[in-house]
Amino acid sequence: MALCVGVSSCAHIPGGAFSYSDVRYCGPRLRIVCAIQSREDAARNTLKALKSQNHRPKKWLGQHYMLNDQVNIDMVEAAKIQPGDLVLEIGPGTGSLTNALVEAGADIIAVEKDPDMAALITERFGHCGQVEIINEDFVKWPAALYMQQALRKRFGESEPPPRAKVIANLPFNITTQVVKQLLPLGCTFSHIILLLQDEAAIRLVDASPDAEEYRPISILINFFSVPEYKFRVERDNFLPPPKVDAGVVSFALKQESEYPQVSSIKSFFTMVNSAFNGKRKMLRKSLQHLHSPEATKSALTSIGLLETARPEELTLDQFVALHNTLNDPETI
Ligand SMILES: C[S@@+](CC[C@H](N)C(=O)[O-])C[C@H]1O[C@@H](n2cnc3c(N)ncnc32)[C@H](O)[C@@H]1O
User: Fold this and answer.
1) Centre of ligand 1 from the C-alpha of residue 117, in Å
2) For 21-50, what is each residue's pLDDT tens digit?
3) Cβ–Cβ under 8 Å, residues 263 and 321
């Protein structure tokens, strides 16, 4: 538990607010926590920061800024941030979520694509040893490599190897890409907390074959993580308000030893993607460029399914069994 033992300095931050630094006791070490603005000022400061830069939110970058600091605090709580945690934030924008992370005592690596916002957040948090700002497009940024190096630099070769967390009020247009990019990185990240379009949030956590939008990404999510829908966020909490409400989702990432046992992850997902290419087609047809229809029929019946099975009828475990049966020469 972080115990604030004294205010040590006070500084002005863009947007007219005052921030302060304090000293916290965090387990074995004392830690300086900086740049905390008063909670009720979050919306006002976001507006002022944008105005001071004459900044109009850029639609093509999905810039919908959070005005309700309680949402930021709830996201930080959902990520179970502890003082000293290393956190990757995607798209910090004006820094309202960054501020909540700083307040929780995290060290933050914030990747922002918009140079204007990167400059604004550098001005706001550059003085603070807790925040490193990187002006890059996240989808082209080598997240695993950079974060592994950052973990080693902070924690050395300690055992078990420490993992970072990811938190983001994500631009909606890169949601799927980010999920696909980050979920297989269970040796680097332990938890990923994302604020998404509510419809996407519900769809991503509901990976049962009965779900309307059961797709390869549903299989991918459950293969690499344990997803959980956390809470809904009404659209009027954002500036400008988006056309739809949002929702917060948490993914607890599995480590490699916890993945379902398949002989090759690559060939497993090749099979899953091929299966759904022919959605509503029987698997014996959609998989015929990988396995003969006879082999698929025989594998399906040997794992207790009908030889007419279609991809939307199979659970993750059944896909795993199908893959392993089809790829084990002795069982066919
Ligand atoms: C929905 S806003 C969230 C801003 C801020 N975190 C908040 O909660 O108010 C999304 C942010 O992501 C940034 N962004 C958009 N595409 C990005 C990308 N490919 N890589 C990194 N940042 C991106 C935008 O410039 C914007 O600052």
Assistant:
1) 9
2) 333 333 333 444 454 444 445 677 777 777
3) no
193, 214 in Cβ contact below 8 A? no
Judge whether 194 and 175 are in contact, CB under 8 Å.
yes
Contacts of 206 (CB under 8 A, 6+ apart): 218
Q: Identify whether the C-beta of residue 275 lies closer than 8 Å to the C-beta of residue 283.
A: yes
Q: What is the largest CA-CA distance in the chain?
A: 74
Output the CA 93–ligand 1 centroid distance in Å. Answer: 5
Class of domain 35-258: alpha beta
pLDDT per residue as tens digits for the range 206-252: 877 877 788 999 999 999 999 999 999 999 999 999 999 999 999 99
Of the residues 65, 72, 237, which should be mutated to test ligand 1's pocket, given the most ligand atoms within 8 Å of the CB? 65
CATH tag, 277-331: 1.10.8.100
Interface predicted TM-score (ipTM): 0.99
Domain boundaries, the chain: 35-258, 277-331
For ligand 1, atom 16, the nearest C-alpha belongs to 61
